[in-house]
Specification:
Helices cover 56% and strands 10% of the residues. The chain has twelve helices and three strands, in the order αββαααααααβαααα. Helix 1 (4-23) packs across helix 7 (129-144) and helix 2 crosses helix 7 (129-144). It is globular.
Length: 245
């Protein structure tokens, strides 16, 4: 989405990915839950992370020169959405080799404009939330692309190295169904601004040269400091805000 809270998360996630690809540092994307049926992986949680990697791969393929274009698109064509027929059709169309985008055009305007102005793009797709979200992410990728880094090198690092990894939890092995995902998301609440801030801060500390042991830092921010603020405040509410002071 385009609201500010989501924009901060989106920009931060992409920035972390580009850091990995530019500096050859590892990036761990935590757990992705799902199951494998008929040799197809069906995620129940982790769709946004996987979709971001798919869109980044697609963008780099469109912008690269001297690569096996057909080979890459064939691999990308395995990724699809089945939430709505329009999402399914969109994924098929953008991975069709006949619809390659011009690198020169992409350098002059936004990706979303190029795609929505293409003859194969259906106007009704603009109402599909999944497609709208993918277009927003593609524009952000285009905005953040590191011009000092070769597009082709970024593509090689993304596809030929194991810089970006995640833990896969197969629900079939746990004998679980979609009910687990429903329970995981039962409260239906967005993370607070402080929760996002704390995640960013812990990541920043772990990457920086600050002489603090990461384990001790996490113990303090999630334990000792929290207990101190909670005790001094005397109330359950307002604890997050006091951390800023």
């Amino acid at each position: 989405r385009k609201d500010n809270k989501v924009a901060i998360i989106r920009e931060g996630f992409l920035n972390s990915i580009f850091d990995v690809l530019s500096e050859n540092k590892p990036l761990h994307l935590d757990f992705i839950y799902g199951s494998i049926k008929n040799e197809k992986f069906i995620p129940l949680d982790g769709q946004q992370r996987l979709t971001t990697l798919f869109l980044l791969h697609w963008y780099l393929v469109q912008m690269s020169e001297g690569i096996d274009y057909e080979w890459h698109l064939k691999r990308l064509g395995r990724f699809t959405y089945k939430t709505r027929k329009s999402s399914l059709a969109f994924c098929r169309v953008i991975t069709d080799s006949a619809n390659k985008l011009s690198r020169e055009i992409l350098n002059e305007t936004s990706v979303s404009e190029v795609i929505t102005n293409s003859i194969w793009f259906l106007k009704v797709w603009k109402r599909d939330p999944t497609i709208k979200g993918m277009l927003v992410m593609l524009d952000e990728i285009h905005q953040q692309i590191r011009i000092e880094e070769s597009i082709e090198n970024l593509l090689i690092k993304l596809t030929d190295t194991r810089s970006i990894v995640f833990e896969f939890l197969d629900l079939n092995e746990l004998r679980q169904t979609d009910e687990l995902y429903v329970k995981m998301n039962a409260r239906g609440k967005q993370l607070t601004e402080f929760e996002h801030f704390k995640a960013w801060l812990q990541s920043h500390v772990s990457r920086s040269k600050i002489q603090i042991e990461e384990e001790q830092w996490q113990k303090n921010i999630d334990g000792n400091w929290l207990d101190l603020i909670w005790t001094s405040n005397g109330e359950l509410f307002g604890v997050d805000e006091l951390f800023y002071y």
